[in-house]
Write a structure and sequence with these properties.
single chain, about 800 residues, alpha+beta, TIM Barrel, beta-galactosidase, domain 2, beta-galactosidase, domain 3, 4 domains, 10 helices, 47 strands, elongated, GH, beta-galactosidase activity
């Protein structure tokens, strides 16, 4: 069983982030045990502030070689827009036997089992597992699993007690990062299931867990299993999962209203389907999702647009998927959305999964952040500062908002502040057509059709979040509307900066309510402006980066206009403070250029950046006037600073490509060869083998496959990996064949030998777990009147998530 937890990575306090309202007029729900984490139908609130939970899924056991690398992944996730990480704890990893470490489990510090170390790394900065995370020994328990079976409860109680106490001491109430805990996953309500679910909830609370308990339901959250708005056993916050398989799903909002209307809309899993495979491929997660994050795929995938190769990031396995599908989730008022896959080491994979758990995730198995993370950085940066979105209500959606019926729009409006968010995309989300249109909007200045000049342009596989009455900056600047998207905003020194972006070659129009603005566009030939009735309208062609500085009385506004590819290189890093939650504070600089910024800090006159480069890189940083120096990875750089407060420097990558090594001449080398399976020899001493002599089994639904003898390996303590079977018989010479029935699990297989002679192999498929084969024998293969040895090597035998024996 995989137990799911959610912890903070970064956090943005209201005083540092936004002038928007937080909708305090709605009643907040809580567990009754803490007010540190509360919720209402709009969003989660942490320490009294609304938060959009954008989470990436990371599994500690899938990066076991060096646990110090967990920090590397956390830093990359945090730097690329995510503010939380969800993680599974794998029961089998910590309790390989029922009595491991005196029934306290193996959580050895400094190893991949070190859950406390994993949580500490997060402060700094059912996932297709064999048996679904169940230890193999659990499969031998009499009766059903995942219900109120007393034998099963006796098995899971020690494990869940230990891990719950670890989680409890790391909750936000104790200065830790844990904000949510999940009970069970993809599970249905029934009389016995309700008792089991309540037992889990009771154990959590008895162990000191006070934060909200969640549940992840299947099918887009339509069923309402264990919803707090349904009768019977329930959790605090109900979530759904969905794998849209190429077309956006418009049912999340309606499902939410029917299943859990007092909760915020939560998608705990969201990703793709593999062509022909009904199993989910990621949890970012977002997984994943998380991460999945999390739009995840493996092999060749079909998304409804085209065949997709994760190695090249083509089709919708790249940033296009996130651009369309994630924004559609936001458009349906989702505010909790659950990236690194890693590797299924040591035969921990579910049978139909690959050794790699990469699946085209945003951070690859090699730990390289792909362009998908750049897209998530844009979205995460916007969600962090779009406070009014967290209290917004879905007003309407459809194709009647624009002058083109090919374009679909969803309008979300904050009824308290009047701010609105228009989510605009092709009505057919898989469309690759280029379409132009104009958008009908409602603003504080009345109804408008925008842009006034030019058109809105939608490339294929495109989606935009366009704002009206968007308030930003320390000085309370109001953007009446913008046809370019907002990346982020922040106040640096006395200047309120807002970053806008659109695809290169498109045009944009942004209208800002000001009193008496002055600006100099003489060096910006692609930007024009007009001012009338308190409204400054900027029109611009998008390409590269352009900075428009506007003076309005004692207010200064910096409008940075970027094309989307250029925007991918911009960062709004968190500047850590000295406090309990110091690593969760807000932005105070803007940086362009590096591949990755892991950490940023300002001390006196120096901005210190730590991160990674792809090569020699020009770094630009918008910094406070007091900052005149820049270091990169502790190396002081030579900088220039212009009148706009932008510092520029060049940083060199310290990683050099190695030369091609000299290879030995393999054809002239002397080779030594040895067999890898001495067990094939008839005279091999197998006296230390376990004798399969059981005649009864508690697998009541599966009779013995070999007459009176039980040949299920799990009954003898072998739960996976390669299995060797040796059978003995005295040959008469009349034997002509051996018939075998082998249950290797999905995608498993086996090979057979008689007296060391290879007979052949047989294998299952992703949908076939058991095969029956006839192996023909010749007289020359047999040793008449002597002991004959029949050997089976059973391979690929990890356990399916809903484990059956073998």
């Amino acid at each position: 069983m995989l137990w799911h937890f959610l912890g903070l990575l970064s956090y943005c306090f209201l005083s540092a982030c936004s002038a928007g309202a937080i909708n305090t007029h709605l009643k907040r729900n809580s567990t009754g045990l803490t007010d540190n984490v509360t919720w209402d139908p709009h969003s989660l609130s942490i320490l009294g502030q609304r938060v959009f939970v954008l989470s990436a899924e990371i599994h500690p056991w899938r990066l076991p070689g060096n646990p110090n690398l967990w920090t590397d992944i956390f830093q990359k996730v945090k730097a690329n827009g995510f503010n939380t990480v969800s993680f599974y704890v794998n029961w089998a990893t910590h309790f390989p036997t029922p009595t491991t470490n005196g029934s306290q489990g193996d959580f050895q510090p400094g190893t991949y089992r070190d859950i406390q170390g994993f949580i500490d790394a997060a402060k700094d900065a059912d996932g297709e597992t064999t048996g679904g995370g169940f230890p193999g020994w659990v499969g031998n328990i009499a009766g059903n699993l995942r219900d109120n079976n007393a034998a099963y409860q006796q098995a899971w109680t020690p494990y869940l007690t230990v891990i719950s106490k670890i989680i409890a001491k790391n909750q936000i109430t104790n200065g830790g990062p844990i904000i949510l805990v999940q009970a069970e996953n993809e599970y249905s309500a029934s009389t016995s299931h309700n008792i089991y679910m309540q037992d889990i909830i009771n154990l959590y609370r008895a162990s000191g867990i006070v934060v909200p308990i969640t549940f992840n339901d299947q099918h887009g959250g339509a069923a309402g299993n264990f919803s707090p708005d349904k009768a019977g056993t329930h959790v605090d916050i109900y979530c759904g999962d969905s794998y849209p398989a190429g077309q956006v799903q418009a049912v999340y909002y309606s499902n939410h209203l029917a299943a859990a209307p007092t909760d915020p809309l939560c998608l705990a899993e969201e990703g793709h389907y593999w062509a022909g495979d009904p199993h989910r491929l990621e949890e970012l997660d977002m997984r994943k999702y998380v991460s999945e994050q999390i739009s995840t795929l493996r092999g060749l995938l079909r998304t409804g647009i085209q065949t997709v190769n994760p190695a090249t990031g083509s089709g919708q396995n790249n940033a296009d998927y996130e651009n369309i599908f994630y924004k559609e989730n936001y458009a349906q008022t989702t505010t909790i959305l659950m990236t690194f896959g890693g590797t299924n080491w040591g035969q921990t994979a579910e049978p139909t999964s690959y050794t790699s758990y990469d699946y085209g995730a945003g951070i690859g198995e090699s730990r390289i952040a792909t362009i998908k993370m750049n897209e998530m950085r844009l979205q995460g940066a916007f969600l962090r500062v779009a406070r009014d979105l967290l209290g917004a209500t879905l007003i309407a959606n459809g194709t009647n908002y624009t002058t083109s019926s090919l374009i679909h729009t969803a309008e979300l409006r904050n009824l308290q502040t009047g701010a609105a968010f228009y989510f605009v995309r092709h009505d057919q989300s898989t469309s690759t057509a280029l379409t132009t249109s104009r958008l009908n909007i409602t603003t504080s200045a009345g109804r408008l059709t925008v842009p006034n000049l030019g058109q809105l342009t939608f490339n294929g596989l495109d989606s935009k979040i366009l704002v009206t009455d968007f308030n930003f900056g320390r000085n309370g600047i109001n953007i009446l509307y913008s046809t370019a998207e907002i990346l982020t905003w922040t106040t640096i020194g006395s200047v309120d900066y807002v970053l806008l972006f659109a695809p290169a070659g498109q045009t944009g129009e942004t209208a800002i309510q000001l009193a008496k603005p002055t600006l100099d566009l003489s060096k910006l030939p692609n930007v024009s402006s007009r001012f009338s009735n308190g409204l400054l309208t900027l029109n611009y062609a998008v390409g590269g980066s352009q900075l428009v500085t506007i003076e309005d009385g004692n207010r200064t506004i910096g409008v940075v206009i970027l094309d989307k590819r250029t925007a991918y290189n911009w960062h709004a890093p968190i500047l850590a403070k000295q406090a309990t939650f110091g690593n969760y504070f807000s932005i105070g600089v803007l940086v362009n250029g590096p591949y990755l910024i892991r950490k940023a800090s300002i001390l006196n006159d120096t901005l210190s950046l730590t991160g990674d480069l792809n090569g020699t890189t020009t770094i630009q940083a918008i910094v406070p006037p007091s900052v005149t120096k820049l270091t990169w990875n502790s190396q002081t750089l030579s900088v220039s600073k212009n009148s706009s407060g932008i510092m520029t420097a060049t940083a060199q990558s310290l990683t050099h490509a190695p030369g091609i090594p000299t290879l030995p001449n393999l054809s002239t080398n002397k080779w030594k060869v040895t067999g890898s399976l001495p067990e094939l020899a008839p005279d091999f001493d197998d006296s230390e083998f376990v004798t399969a002599n059981l005649t009864s089994t508690n697998y009541t639904n599966l009779p013995p496959l070999a007459g009176d003898h039980v040949l299920y390996s799990q009954q003898y303590g072998f739960y996976g990996g390669n299995l060797l079977w040796r059978g003995h018989f005295n040959a008469t010479g009349q034997e002509t064949a051996i018939v075998t029935t082998v249950q290797s699990g999905f995608a498993g297989g086996y090979s057979a030998w008689i007296n060391g002679i290879f007979l052949g192999s047989s294998q299952g498929t992703p949908t076939v777990s058991l095969t029956t084969d006839t192996w023909n024998l010749s007289s020359s293969m047999l040793r008449v009147g002597q002991d004959n040895v029949f050997v089976i090597l059973q391979g690929g035998s990890s356990l399916p998530p809903h484990s059956g024996p073998r």
